[in-house]
Amino acid sequence: MSKKRGKKYLDAIKDYQKDKFYEPEEVLDLVKKFHWTNFEESIDIAIKLGIDTRRSEEQVRGAVDLPHGTGKKVKVVVFAEGEKAKE
């Protein structure tokens, strides 16, 4: 018995070419087009950098902005006099 696919799935993947190499930007656009479910999907990406982390000049550094922050509330206290207190 062959495995059947739904209409939404078949409509979503009609632009996908299995033998073509896609750039990362193209892949993200295609994944957004391939939406056929009724819930919000997520994407996991694994990238092999091919570096030796034991060598200091090959370390990877970066920063990430989380969509909802870290959950911590920021409190700011200012002690000032004169013109600075009005700011």
UniProtKB/TrEMBL annotation:
Pfam families: Ribosomal_L1. This is 50S ribosomal protein L1. GO terms for cellular component: ribonucleoprotein complex; ribosome. Belongs to the universal ribosomal protein uL1 family. The lineage of its organism: unclassified sequences, metagenomes, ecological metagenomes. It comes from marine sediment metagenome. Keywords: Ribonucleoprotein, Ribosomal protein.
